[in-house]
Amino acid sequence: MMALKFHNRVGTLVTLSNNNCTAQRNHPTQEFNNGVVMSAEPLQDNVPFEVRIDKKVNSWSGSIEIGVTTCDPGTLKFPISATGFREGTWVMSGSSILRDGHSVIEEYGADLDQLNEGEKVGVMRTTDGTLHFLVNGIDQGPAANGIAAKVYAVIDMYGKCAQVTIVDNTPGTNQENDGISNDVASQLANEFLTQLSNQIVNDLTRNVEALGLDTTTPSANERLTFHERCGSLVKLSNHRRTAERRHPLDEFNNGVVMTNRPLKNDELFEIRLDVLVDKWSGSIEVGITTHNPSMLDFPATMTNMRSDVDVVGTIMMSGCGILTNGKGTRREYGVYNLDELTEGDRIGLIRKSNGHLHYYINGEDQGVASNETPATIWGVVDLYGMAVKVTILDRNDPNYSNDILSPTQRARSIFRQYPDMYDEISSEEAEPVERLLFHTRCGSHAAVINNQRTAHRPNALDDFNYGVVLTSRTLRPEELFEVHIDKMVDKWAGSIEIGVTLHSPNDLDFPSTMTNMRSGTWMMTGTGVMHNGTTVIDMYGQNLDRLKAGDRVGVKRRGDGTLHFYVNGIDQGQGATGVPPNVYGVIDLYGQAAQTTIIDHLDPLSPDADSSSISDTEELRFHHVHGQNSTIANNGRTCLRPNATGEFNDAIVMSSRPLRDNELFEVIIEKMVDRWSGSLEAGVTLIKPEELEFPNTMTDIVYDTWMLSGAAIMQDGSTIRNGYPLDLDAVTVGCRIGIMRCSDGTLHYFLNGADQGAACSDVPHGVFAVIDLYGQCAQVSITSGSGVYPFVDNNLPQSDQAIMSPSSSDVSHRFSLCCGKSITLKNNSCTTARSNGYNNAIVFSSDPLKRDEIFEVRIDQVCRVWSGSLHIGLTTLAISDTTPASIIPPSALELTSKLTWLITGSEVRKNGFVIKENYAPALERLEVGNLVGIRRVSDGTLHLYINGEDMGVAASNIPKNVFVVVDLYGPVEMISVTSSCSWDPSLLASQQSQSITSELAEAAELEAEEEFPSTIGFHANHGKNILICNGGLTAERTESYNQGLIVTSQPLRKKQMFQVRVDHLTPRWSFSLMVGVLGFSPEKYTFPVSSMAIKKSCIMIQGNAVYNSGCKIKENYGPNLDDLQVGHVIGIMVDGESNLHLFFNGVDQGVAARDVPGSCYGVVDLYGKCDKVTVVPNEDSGESPEPQYKDKEKAEKENIEEVLKEKQAVSESILGTVVMRPCEYAKTCSKVRSLMGIPDGFFLEQQMTCYCDSCHKLRAEDLYLRRGEPPREYSVPLGWCRYILKQRQKAPSFVASDKWHVAYYGTQLEVLRKILDTGDIHACSDQMGGGSILLPQSVAFTEKSRPDSSSLRQIVMSPTIRYTGCNEFSPKFKLLDSKTKKTFHVRVALQVWLKPGSYKTGPQSLGLTDQIDPQFSNNELEWSTKEHGSVLLHGLLIKIENL
User: Fold this and answer.
1) What gap in Å lies between CA 377 and CA 366, rounded to an integer?
2) What integer pLDDT is reported at residue 1011 of this predicted model?
């Protein structure tokens, strides 16, 4: 048999060696492809062609690919990868099988991407023409049939794979290998039996030693105590057998103690852990040292001790590891973690006579910790972190517990301590539950420790990503995956991210951050939720980036497929729907997050477990942690400020546990002093007392805190409401003050048992009560009236402790006293009028809007002398009656310091930028008596009401606690409030619509009554260029190449085929039909120009790629739809597992996308060539293509909630920038920009827009836009990349961006830096640029000879880059990349804002006869100006012409 070799002809980067048996890819860390090799001869039947992976690199994703091909290597032009082969090629890539580059089997066998160096992979053709692949000699089964007789083996050293060697499979070698394998197996078996025997002997010996330890101490030997010399914060007692750290809540170290004498061989030194505090991370550390305590300068912590090199000076057990001389020598030791021990646990150590050091936890030997222990050693205990107090135990003491508890016995003891838990779960009958742990396979910068319960980034100060860690198993239904944040670093931005994924940790190619995953992944990051790398909820819950060490974060998939995230045990609400079962929990230790530990909810005594359920029923007391000027007395029921006449603050106290819903926390004022101003302040906070760094006063806290100070309600340090009925500055001795967080999320205060009404809403569950003994208030005590009351007013007690809520239905909204300088308030601040001018007339609501509350005003006076319209909207700017009016700008459009949404005219603006046009009837048309209302709906959307009629969603993701802002701009001069605080939306004047709930119920009934049609037609709502005919079964694009979106009239059922036939093509266009599914109702949806611009739930197939919400998720899938011909039939179907399939002429092309939404509509985009299609009826329907009508009324009511929640795509800037991942052209332009040497300080971060043809089509932008007052047209800089410049001018740039015109200025590299340095084109106009280099230039003048008329040179610009981007204005120059030796041909230009009226329009001056830009006449291409300050730089444009 001929020896197997590689063919001499190979890929361009391959080098052969070892007699053509070894192949390696050159420059493997710089190049990832062009590594294809083939067998020298065709394969012989039933003889595997096998290679061994010799070398891998970690620079790339993907790895080795193997297969067979009918192509002859002698004549073949080698492709860059094996998947590029055609004409009868089968390749195994990852775990998939591809035929001629197209996937035929998604999941075949082992994943080749996961193979390591030394592992083998092979391919074999059998005599019956079946193709088999082998991994490490194991047959993966038949992969394909009908393989040609003459095929060559193909190996692609792709991605990580850098070198392979052919494995010789000759019979002689195999027999030899078999013999070797048998010898190795025998040797391993013998070694195993030997180790097993030794283990049995060691276990028997260990038990004898444990029972026969030295329990008698010679009377001549001194009893073990702690040495009198110890750490600076240690206090010794009990005849120096007890050590305690002073100030345990203020200090965490300087608690080192040592034994009074050296330890003897086989002498047990054991201590009991008496007291722990829950404030710090880390805990007790125990060990031995050679340092004499009499001469030792005690360190802050014993792990800081250093000794001479090669000398064992100090050995400490810290956490679950062993440290020698301060350096880790064993990461995992024993079965216990010292940081997880509880009060009463015992820790001991023995130096055996053979020099081995053993630790004992609760009497259980943990094994050898060190083999080389010095002879003379002292015992050491470091009272670090949580550890406060320990006592040395004596085995001769009759009370000494000699129990050796196994983990199972410890678990049983837990149930004995908690009989209610013991009743539910019998320790003998309970089924074993696999604990939720971290998987050991994780990101490259992460590590899993502590018996897989803890994950950390060991070098958190050096790296910030690649910290992804998954759970070891999938989550069970309703199982909470929760982690405790152990450590944080302050170096990076961003923090922990948590979620779930369908990817197994064994198969996942771990990304740098989990939000880069494009399939099967849901993550909470910051305040938002992302699905497959795309943000689906912007403002979701508490900001994860603000969490600290000690906080908890979790995720749970519920039985209905919804995903909920938790922060410190608080459910943040529904974060996602349709999440399939069998998902893994995942955390991303990103940025500041350095270490987390899984909270074991099966162990209620776990230090990480939430103990709220255990302590929830205990009686309310004041917490023992409090402000430094306060004291707790009377068994935790009384708090006082002892030096009340000398100190007025630093006296904050909190409840001992979180308040339950509807639980009243009430205190009585027992003492006041008449020296200070201000008095008691009361409220609630989410911050735990142990984690709070107590400020001078609680109103200094800027997060998760709600306080009543005087009569003002404050949230996070800012006033959100004034004039609350209860004024704490007016209370006296004997008054009872109560706080209650109600089950509806409102916060109520009580005075002498009387409810003062809701102070604020949306207060989360689990808050602690806060009392601030401020100013005059010196002492309070908790009353017996505290407790839980039913949340119904008439059921509450009516005695002197009655809790009554006065009706507030007649309390009107009012305007804040903080208003514009032209505003006059009347009628108790319910009416406002503009006294003069047309602006400076902004007013705000006095309080933030409540959930679903409407603030409505009536137009009282209009003056048509002025133009413009009323502005109304919402702002996050915190306003109170005492806010200075100086912060209010002349116009509401200038409110940009805080998030502000305004409706002006018929537009919706966010921070001054237009986000929606033609939203509602123009507000310029308002007349006297018209009603205008604004409402923030509970789903976070903004709605406008005109005369009681809802105009629909104006904006999305509106945060809570927003104030109404109204600008009496232009003709509207007077308005009055008509709404009240308890406003019912159903009582609005002229409101005719029924409630959404009743509509949904009616729609559900109709859906239940009607039978779903087997053939579905097209929906009545479609793109503007679409004509529907043939009874809703045929769609035709009537003009242009886009605006051709059509959707099905009904959602697709599972396993229901939807097919269309191509009826007509127009060859003059490029690209063609796109198909897919839409995850929301098309009712009332305004379709974009292309399906690629749909940023909501939408999966589309375009060409041979699959896109999710415009982002590519799969390539080389199915046939290329751009090559469709008339008569071809294209179909889609969602299978029973929510996978999307594409069908071409009835042939299934495999899974295109997974996790498709449950209720989805079919989408067809008649784009480019394809302009007409007809629905093909299903074969089992027995129907001809006849109209299929559904009740229109029912269709209008379906999924109405989703329509209300639909997000509006917001432009990132006024010039149409959309956030996208940079393409290759954009990356090259950015590289060229850096080669030009322009500092990054000139540019706004991440403000780059690529206008290459692909990116422009993907954004579906128009080629020409309009801007300014009056509007003028300008072209989009197609083919260029734009980088937004920082504004240098003192004048606000938004004035220019909104009202000035857009133009382009061509320049040269030589003068570009000077223009950017000065920010003025005129300053550089004497040099080249701004005019044709071929045209006569103006005469140069000195400063003394310059005529008055030539003070500034005329600057030439144009509304189209086609003109100023040509050679005459922007000459091409060359840039050399010294690293790659590549030369780039580059042009530069500037996009500028041009002041209207400051320039002249003239003809082109280049003498060209052809029209330069089809949109502009050659007679209006030059815009010229001499006026200084009339041009503002906006962006740098770069174009590369030799790519």
Assistant:
1) 20
2) 43
